[in-house]
């Protein structure tokens, strides 16, 4: 797919839009008197944030070795999912395609614009069936295909990503929210080859910054310009931009926490093994386990009664609950309850 064919996929009205960049970000003057934005002259956070997020993008550009023009920042990657659907999908007309089961927010944002959601049912190991992909794309055209890898809530990574990117006649979004836990290569290296590819990453998971709401899209310059054209001017607040720059400046804490979570994951996996109430712990590349219990309703309720909240996946995935890796204390509490359950 070439860059001109990308434009053909975009909603016509969106192609006319220009990114909103505040005056001060267009005219970066040396220490200007700022009387242009009706702000208060007092306070530590009295100024609007940088609408172009240029410092953060430059920092990320260094960190990931990708040009800043290929980076867009969102209020969490959730916002970027919303923007991508807005750019490419004509309301009430176009469709998106998702893996089934996968992350719920793709369908959530599609529903707002009455875009149809085409689900590709995964096989019993939660893999995409290639014949099904080919058949479905032929018979049910869609504009955007969301591939979640590692997939939430199943935990597995998608094999042979490039096959799907190459053979999909539209925009492919690879959602890598959990990539850091996987130890596997990101699809970032495929960006140069595929102008229809968008990669989403987030600071909410391995980076431990869910409260800051910062997500990142990496894509061709054309797609990034489109994202900038539809995003709210001040979509990422200044405090979050500063916090993420600090994290990237010194990633010691990130590395330490990641190591810790992965060690806890191993401990938890071992502790879950051979438990009477568990039928199967699915293999996972993420910081959570999808677990099939012998009676998931009872287990979920028993955990809740002990003040432990987990993520119910039934009835969509029969007898399954998604449980993420916590601190040792939290994991131990989980194990204690599970051990004592008599079905
Ligand atoms: N993608 C996936 C696969 C997720 O699981 C999540 C969060 N649950 C997100 C995106 C959204 O993350 P953010 O906090 O960056 O909006």
From TrEMBL:
Q: Which residues form a coiled coil?
A: none
> PROSITE patterns this protein is in?
AA_TRANSFER_CLASS_2 (PS00599)
Please write the reaction equations for the catalytic activity of this protein. L-histidinol phosphate + 2-oxoglutarate = 3-(imidazol-4-yl)-2-oxopropyl phosphate + L-glutamate
Q: Which UniProt keywords apply?
A: Amino-acid biosynthesis, Aminotransferase, Histidine biosynthesis, Pyridoxal phosphate, Transferase
* Gene Ontology MF term list: histidinol-phosphate transaminase activity
State the source organism's domain of life.
Bacteria
Q: What class of enzyme is it?
A: transferase
- Please give the start and end residues of each transmembrane region: none
Does the keyword field hold Cell membrane? no
Q: Which residues carry this modification: N6-(pyridoxal phosphate)lysine?
A: 205
Cofactor(s) annotated in UniProt: pyridoxal 5'-phosphate
Q: Note the Pfam families from the entry.
A: Aminotran_1_2
Q: Which InterPro entries match?
A: Aminotrans_II_pyridoxalP_BS, Aminotransferase_I/II_large, HisP_aminotrans, PyrdxlP-dep_Trfase, PyrdxlP-dep_Trfase_major, PyrdxlP-dep_Trfase_small
Annotated EC: 2.6.1.9
Q: Which pathway does UniProt place it in?
A: Lipid metabolism; Amino-acid biosynthesis; L-histidine biosynthesis; L-histidine from 5-phospho-alpha-D-ribose 1-diphosphate: step 7/9
| Sequence ranges assigned to domain Aminotransferase class I/classII large in this UniProt record | 40-337
Which family is it part of?
Answer: Belongs to the class-II pyridoxal-phosphate-dependent aminotransferase family. Histidinol-phosphate aminotransferase subfamily.
Q: How does it assemble?
A: Homodimer.
What is this protein's name? Histidinol-phosphate aminotransferase
Species assigned in the record = Chryseobacterium camelliae
């Amino acid at each position: 797919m070439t860059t001109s064919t990308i434009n053909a996929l975009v909603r016509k009205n969106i192609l006319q839009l220009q990114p909103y960049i505040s005056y001060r970000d267009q005219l970066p003057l040396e220490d200007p008197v700022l009387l242009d934005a009706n702000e208060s002259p007092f306070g530590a956070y009295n100024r609007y944030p940088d609408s172009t997020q240029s410092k953060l993008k430059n920092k990320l550009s260094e960190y990931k070795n990708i040009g800043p023009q290929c980076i867009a920042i969102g209020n969490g990657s959730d916002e970027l999912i919303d923007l991508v659907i807005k750019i490419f999908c004509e309301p009430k007309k176009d469709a998106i395609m998702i893996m089934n089961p996968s992350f719920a927010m793709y369908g959530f944002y599609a529903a707002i614009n009455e875009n149809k959601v085409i689900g590709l049912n995964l096989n019993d190991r939660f893999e995409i069936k290639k014949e099904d992909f080919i058949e479905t794309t032929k018979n049910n055209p869609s504009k955007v295909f969301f591939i979640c890898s590692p997939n939430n809530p199943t935990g597995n990574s998608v094999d042979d990503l490039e096959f799907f990117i190459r053979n999909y006649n539209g925009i492919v979004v690879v959602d890598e929210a959990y990539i850091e836990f996987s130890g596997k290569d990101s699809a970032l290296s495929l960006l140069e080859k595929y102008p229809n590819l968008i990669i989403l990453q987030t600071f909410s998971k391995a980076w431990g910054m869910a409260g800051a709401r910062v997500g990142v899209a990496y894509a061709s310059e054309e797609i990034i310009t489109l994202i900038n054209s539809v995003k709210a001017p001040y979509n990422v607040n200044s405090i979050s931009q500063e916090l993420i720059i600090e994290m990237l400046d010194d990633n010691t804490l990130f590395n330490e926490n990641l190591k810790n979570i992965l060690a806890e994951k191993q401990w938890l996996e071992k502790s879950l093994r051979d438990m009477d109430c568990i039928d199967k712990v699915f293999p996972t590349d993420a910081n959570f386990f999808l677990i099939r219990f012998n009676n998931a309703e009872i287990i979920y309720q028993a955990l809740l009664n002990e003040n432990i909240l987990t993520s119910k996946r039934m009835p969509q995935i029969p007898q399954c609950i998604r449980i993420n890796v916590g601190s040792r204390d939290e994991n131990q509490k989980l194990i204690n309850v599970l051990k004592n359950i008599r079905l």
